[in-house]
Amino acid sequence: WLKHLARFLRLPSFPTPLPKATPSFFKMVRINVLRDCLNGICNAEKRGKRQVLVRPCSKVIIKFLQVMQKHGYIGDVEIIDDKRSGKVVIDLVGRINKCGVISPRFDVCLPDIEQLASNLLPSRQFGHLVLTTPYGIMDHEEARRKHTGGKIVGFFF
Predict the structure, then answer these.
(1) Do 130 and 154 form a contact (C-beta atoms < 8 A)?
(2) Per residue in 55-64, pLDDT tens?
(3) What is the rounded end-to-end Cα distance, in angstroms, of the chain?
(4) Run of H or E residues at 76
(5) How many angstroms separate the CA atoms of 77 and 79, rounded?
(6) Within 13 Å, how many C-alpha atoms sit on residue 81's CB side?
(7) 87 exposed, middle or buried (CB, 10 Å; 0-12, 13-18, 19+)?
């Protein structure tokens, strides 16, 4: 009889649904901008795109892309300064099969570079690891030539 009384008095039906507790001040933040960049490049490459726009931009992303460009995996890299975090337009040439980030950035000493390359890359003649060293960001072959270790940033092949 309460339902009939509520309908008669035009009260809300029982039980009343609670309002959703989603405050508007929660905002998603980017955790790893290099991972977002490489993921965007990999997805665009799979879709057969010729260019990809990546934002935000950082110094590590620029250096990583320069290593990829030096080995011919990507074409021209254009940095757009928008007075904020920046954007990068990358021309794709269709050579990238996979690229990714290694997180956390493990320490790699000189003798371990070969083992890490065999674990991550599909073959010895194919693909590159990207390391950050005291001499800058470079691939694993250049680090071996300069006789230095460092921290692993990512890979591409």
Answers:
(1) yes
(2) 999 999 999 9
(3) 72
(4) strand 74-80
(5) 7
(6) 2
(7) middle
